[in-house]
Design brief:
Blueprint (H helix, E strand, L loop, with lengths): L2 H28 L1 H6 L3 E7 L3 E7 L9 E5 L6 E6 L5 E4 L7 E9 L2 E9 L5 E6 L6 H23 L4
Antiparallel strand pairs: 1-2, 1-8, 2-5, 3-4, 3-6, 6-7
Helix pairs in contact: 1-3
Length: about 160
């Protein structure tokens, strides 16, 4: 190791570097990083003559100003497009001549959800639709293992000895 590398290593360890890896591992294991960074979207819809869709984050905050695309049954072409209001609400009136399952996609900044809404004449209903309430335990385990592996690899890279 060169003199400069030795000085850098001593400086890093003296600034608390020896506790950085255990601290990062603790945060990853406790799941604090996931709770602060990740959230999903929950959609609720109500049908009367019109269909009103309300989208919220898992935290309960409204999914405001999100892009909405509505697809009629058996169609790949958008039937309607728009944005949610400040409360995360979007309302549309489906075509009575096209009964069936209407698809509503809500997206914004990498987040989103899809609701499949059955529509028939004279139907009134209230339902909650969600693409999921977060990650599965397997996904959480793989993410935690990846973070730990990355931290260990980074620490070993900086602490390696050169011949």
């Amino acid at each position: 190791m060169s003199k400069q590398q030795i000085q850098w290593r001593r400086r890093w360890l003296s600034l608390g570097g020896r506790w950085a890896l255990p601290g990062l591992l603790g945060v990853a294991i406790m799941g604090l990083a996931e709770r602060s960074l990740a959230h999903g979207v929950v959609m609720q819809y109500q049908t009367t003559q019109a269909v009103s869709v309300q989208a919220k984050y898992d935290s309960g905050d409204p999914f405001a100003n999100a892009q909405v695309t509505v697809y009629a049954p058996d169609s790949d072409q958008p039937w309607s497009k728009g944005t949610t209001d400040n409360n995360g609400v979007f309302t549309f009136t489906p075509d009575d001549s096209k009964p069936g399952t209407w698809q509503v996609k809500v997206r914004s900044a990498g987040h989103g959800d899809v609701a499949n809404i059955p529509v028939s004449s004279g139907t009134q209903q209230l339902a909650t639709v969600s693409g999921g309430n977060g990650y599965t335990p397997l996904q959480k385990g793989v993410m935690a293992a990846s973070v730990i592996w990355g931290c260990v690899g980074t620490a070993l890279f900086f602490l390696r000895r050169k011949a």
